[in-house]
């Protein structure tokens, strides 16, 4: 097949190439996406031979009887001309026809990039980004599609979005307009998704591809805990450290859909964008519609390599403003300590303990406003409850500041309770379907943010709250999914625009507030991680990863999250034991070791702790401060425990590789396992390191009757004296200090001290039971 080199579009990052060309039929095709290659001298080597028609193929046109669109790797496909796979675009013209056929017109490349109207998008300048625009046209309909490709060389990322413009004189209805399509020539992959529910978010699932259609989507109105918009394709044999893999995410916080289709001829199509379900957008003559931005990356260094691409990209091109690459403060949040039942005095008693322990920020959670004594009332009434807080927000913030703490606040602005002054004044502001009794979630309704007057009201009301006191942090919550979808301000033919218009309304509010209050650290929350996505991260640098603070559950949640999102974006707190969600008892040292790999804080009643826990927390806070930078912004690796693959290792390495922090996690103890092997990666082979186990403590209650092995006098195990001692005496875990070269640590590892295994105990034996863990500091030797 003769292809003009002038229509070869070759995009390069540091390590990848993305190549397109134009078929003789005029359609844009994908030739290649993989490791970086040199400019093509002859595109024919990457072009699919079309020597004869196959089977039941529909030939696109007589001039090219061997070319059927159903068998091509296309760049953006439509319905009606012989491509029977999932399309990137579906539309209905004014005459009711649904056939569309977009062909290449021209393309241009320039330094930098443009933003997307009314939608958040990645940051890019002429120094770090290059954009290629490709125009496709359907002459019969009178519509142009502009495909945008923004190349970020440093992070091996290419972002994509689409603009549809109606150049005809009649209305066109868009029923599907995906942000991006990727057609691959083979299908030797697994489709990896991150799924779950409340308190069990982003669990990794991998499905070997076969012929068929695989869908990862949300219809909840938010990006959802059920199916995160981040997905991966992993080639056969791909591991954490080696192998080929693709990653794809979406800068969007509403209904999304990722579709993976494998055809009869073993080609793979991947699509991402706004969920076509319940979507229809009426495009008037001359109007444009922009999709959200999709984010693509490719790695041949396994899943860790793919994550490194995305972590760097998110930290430097998604997160923005005052908190870009800035260390996050250590938080104490009162929710799990007090729920709705608190007084100003109670809050200050917790705050005094927090300040003494070195914590930096007090966050007042739900219950401070209106008559909010439970979850049945007052959402929407954003004025302080002076019975609970006689000094008001301003006075309380001043008292916190006097203790040396910054002050933060919880809000849930998108919601309203039926029992609220706001609802009584504006019952029509809540989302309701006509002639139906509206369904409640958590005793609340959602405000109709498709309406400008409601968005304006929220913006001004919240601005008054945020400026009423010295507030440095806002936790923005959203505690229910959508139902009864309808807006009285939209005509019948535009009701299919509701979900997207809601997201646009929300983004408008967030854009205004974050511009007005640039120094406030915003944290997104939606019943935990029900809206953990790149769209929210454009406005709020971190997201509460899950309402489940059980350390063992959080290992899976935070590890799953880490594939697509950096440590610096995950809210993670130490809570009481047993955990409210699982009733599981977990050592306070393990609770810290897990939560430390995130935007760290505590969520328990510090005023009720025994001395053991207070001393442990004080040391934890000091340790975190000393290593905060490398944990939050170092290069993160997921590893398994060497000779003990049932164990997990997390590792953060500084950019210069002179400092690192690792953590080894054990789920269950077993007799006879002996030593653990601490095998790491990402260190400098030519440097020597000192490896030091963090000073951790074991609660004497863990030992039962064996406590007498470490005491000078004998006591009854689990007796009163044992209980009193365990509340005050701290049994230090054995010291572990090693010297080793980076080449040894990377290639083989070091053998840690023996853990207790049923018999014998001395200073060289480590008490390491169920749900135990230890952190290790690595420092390069001078």
TrEMBL record:
GO BP term (any one): carbohydrate catabolic process
Domain Glycosyl hydrolase family 36 N-terminal: 26-284
Keyword entries, A-Z: Glycosidase, Hydrolase
Domain annotation Glycosyl hydrolase family 36 C-terminal: ranges: 649-778
Pfam families: Glyco_hydro_36C, Glyco_hydro_36N, Melibiase
Residues reported in the UniProt entry to bind substrate: 198, 365-366, 442, 475-479, 525, 547
GO molecular function: alpha-galactosidase activity
Catalytic residue list: 477 (nucleophile), 547 (proton donor)
Domain of life: Bacteria
Enzyme Commission identifier(s): 3.2.1.22
Reaction catalysed by this enzyme: Hydrolysis of terminal, non-reducing alpha-D-galactose residues in alpha-D-galactosides, including galactose oligosaccharides, galactomannans and galactolipids
InterPro entries in the cross-refs: Aldolase_TIM, Alpga-gal_N_sf, Alpha-glycosidase_related, GH, Glyco_hydro_27/36_CS, Glyco_hydro_36, Glyco_hydro_36_C, Glyco_hydro_36_N
Family stated for the protein in its record: Belongs to the glycosyl hydrolase.
Alphabetized PANTHER family for the sequence: ALPHA-GALACTOSIDASE C-RELATED, GLYCOSIDASE FAMILY 31
Protein name, as recorded: Alpha-galactosidase
């Amino acid at each position: 097949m003769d292809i003009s080199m002038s229509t070869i579009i070759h995009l390069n990052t540091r390590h990848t190439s993305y190549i397109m060309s134009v078929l003789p039929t005029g359609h844009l095709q994908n030739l290649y996406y993989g490791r970086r290659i040199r400019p093509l001298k002859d595109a024919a080597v990457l072009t699919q031979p079309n020597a004869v028609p196959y089977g039941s193929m529909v030939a696109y046109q007589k001039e090219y009887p061997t070319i059927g669109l159903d068998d091509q790797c296309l760049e953006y496909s439509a319905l009606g001309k012989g491509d029977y796979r999932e399309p990137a675009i579906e539309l209905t013209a004014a005459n009711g026809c649904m056939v569309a056929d977009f062909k290449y017109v021209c393309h241009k490349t320039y330094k930098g990039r443009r933003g997307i109207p009314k939608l958040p998008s990645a940051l890019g300048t002429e120094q770090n980004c290059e954009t290629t625009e490709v125009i496709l046209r359907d002459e019969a309909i009178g519509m142009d599609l502009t495909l945008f490709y923004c190349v970020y060389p440093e992070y091996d990322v290419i972002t994509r979005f689409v603009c549809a413009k109606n150049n005809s004189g009649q209305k066109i209805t868009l029923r599907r307009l995906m942000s991006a399509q990727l057609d691959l020539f083979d299908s030797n992959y697994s489709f990896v998704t991150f799924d779950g529910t409340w308190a069990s978010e982003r669990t990794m699932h991998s499905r070997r591809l076969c012929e068929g259609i695989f869908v990862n989507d949300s219809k909840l109105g938010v990006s959802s805990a059920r199916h995160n918009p981040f997905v991966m394709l992993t080639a056969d044999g791909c591991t954490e450290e080696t192998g080929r893999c693709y990653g794809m995410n979406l800068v969007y916080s509403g209904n999304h859909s990722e579709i993976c289709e494998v055809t009869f001829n073993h080609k793979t199509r991947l699509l991402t964008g706004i969920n076509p379900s319940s979507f229809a957008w009426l495009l008037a003559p001359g109007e444009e519609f922009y999709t959200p931005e999709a984010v693509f990356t490719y790695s041949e260094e396994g899943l860790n390599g793919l994550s490194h691409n995305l972590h760097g990209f998110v930290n430097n091109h998604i997160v923005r403003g005052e908190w870009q690459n800035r260390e996050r403060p250590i938080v104490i949040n009162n929710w799990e300590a007090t729920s709705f039942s608190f007084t100003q005095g109670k809050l200050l008693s917790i705050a005094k303990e927090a300040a003494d322990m070195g914590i930096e920020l007090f966050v007042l959670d739900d219950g401070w406003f209106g008559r909010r004594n439970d979850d049945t009332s007052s959402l929407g009434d954003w004025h302080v409850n002076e019975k609970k807080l006689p000094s008001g927000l301003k006075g309380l913030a001043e008292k916190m500041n006097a203790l040396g703490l910054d002050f933060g606040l919880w809000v849930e602005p998108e919601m309203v309770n039926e029992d609220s002054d706001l609802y009584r004044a504006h019952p029509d502001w809540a989302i309701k379907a006509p002639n139906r009794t509206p369904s409640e979630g958590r005793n609340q309704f959602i405000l109709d943010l498709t309406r400008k007057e409601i968005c304006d009201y929220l913006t001004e009301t919240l601005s008054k709250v945020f400026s009423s006191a010295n507030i440095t942090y806002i936790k923005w919550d959203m505690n229910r999914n959508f139902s009864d979808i309808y807006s009285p301000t939209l005509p019948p033919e535009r009701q299919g625009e509701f979900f997207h218009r809601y997201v646009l309304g929300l983004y408008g509010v967030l854009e205004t507030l974050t511009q007005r209050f640039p120094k406030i650290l915003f944290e997104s929350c939606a019943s935990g991680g029900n809206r953990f996505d790149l769209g929210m991260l454009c406005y709020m640098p971190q997201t509460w990863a899950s309402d489940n603070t059980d350390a063992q559950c959080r290992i899976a949640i935070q590890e799953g999250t880490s594939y697509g999102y950096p440590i610096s974006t995950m809210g993670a707190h130490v809570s009481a034991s047993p955990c409210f969600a699982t009733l599981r008892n977990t050592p306070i040292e393990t609770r810290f070791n897990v939560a430390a790999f995130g935007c760290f804080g505590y969520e328990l009643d510090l005023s009720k702790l025994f001395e053991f826990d207070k001393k442990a927390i004080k040391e934890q806070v000091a340790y975190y401060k000393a290593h905060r930078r490398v944990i939050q912004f170092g290069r993160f690796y997921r590893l398994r425990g060497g000779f003990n693959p049932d164990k997990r290792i997390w590792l953060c390495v500084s950019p210069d590789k002179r400092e690192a922090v690792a953590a080894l996690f054990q789920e269950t103890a077993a007799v006879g396992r002996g030593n653990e092997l601490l095998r790491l990666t990402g260190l400098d082979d030519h440097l020597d390191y000192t490896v030091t186990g963090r000073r951790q403590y074991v609660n004497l209650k863990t030992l039962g009757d064996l406590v007498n092995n470490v005491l000078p006098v004998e006591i009854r195990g689990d007796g009163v004296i044992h209980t009193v001692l365990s509340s005050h005496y701290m049994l230090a875990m054995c010291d572990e200090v090693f010297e080793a070269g980076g080449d040894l640590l990377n290639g083989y590892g070091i053998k840690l001290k023996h853990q207790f295994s049923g018999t014998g105990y001395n200073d060289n034996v480590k008490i390491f039971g169920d749900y135990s863990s230890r952190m290790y500091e690595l420092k390069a030797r001078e």
